[in-house]
Specification:
The protein is of the alpha+beta class. The chain is built from four helices and eight strands.
Length: 173
């Protein structure tokens, strides 16, 4: 079993209401995000929304097509100390914005989704052996890449030994 978090989103006329349910805990209350803030997310790629002392940071990743939402649920206890927890979830950006658009027509619409387990990393493709060799010649890139290469390609970045001149003779006097 995996530890993915369920995100439940309800709609009102002016905002979207988020709740999270993970295997360890449930969000202490609903988190309201104005529709105008979601429009800014689409425009600028990142927003910070606050709701009654709690906040959430939305960051759009255009490469992977996901939105990262970091909820910070804060509560004040009787000793006037601030306590809480943080939860990070990843959702498909197009599905979230599609729900926001559809919910304008039907404000009673609800959407539930599981957070994406892992952020997909862009795959690097090398066209030709020369490009791979040029990349591996940089010391910063070489160590992490070397372990993932096939055995025959691992020694591409190592300098080739110089060929000795076979005409060399040693003379002793």
């Amino acid at each position: 079993m995996n530890d993915r978090t369920m995100i439940k989103v309800n709609a009102t006329e002016t905002c979207l209401v988020f709740r999270t349910v993970s295997p360890k805990r449930k969000s202490p209350r609903s988190f309201y995000v104005l529709r105008s803030e979601l429009e800014r997310l689409e425009q600028y790629g990142s927003i910070t929304a606050s709701d009654l002392g709690c906040f959430a940071v939305f960051q759009q990743d255009t490469v992977s097509g996901l939105v990262r939402i970091r909820f910070s649920w804060l509560q004040q206890n009787s000793a006037c100390e601030l306590a809480g927890y943080e939860e990070t979830v990843y959702l498909p950006f197009n599905r979230l914005m599609g729900f926001a658009a559809r919910s304008l027509m039907d404000p009673a619409l609800q959407w539930s989704a599981l957070s994406v387990e892992e952020v997909p990393k862009p795959r690097m493709v090398f066209h030709g052996r020369e490009n791979l060799h040029a990349t591996l010649s940089h010391k910063a890139v070489r160590p992490p890449w070397n372990k993932n290469l096939p055995v025959k390609e691992r020694n591409l970045w190592k300098p080739q030994p110089r060929k000795r001149n076979s005409n060399f003779q040693m003379c002793m006097h």
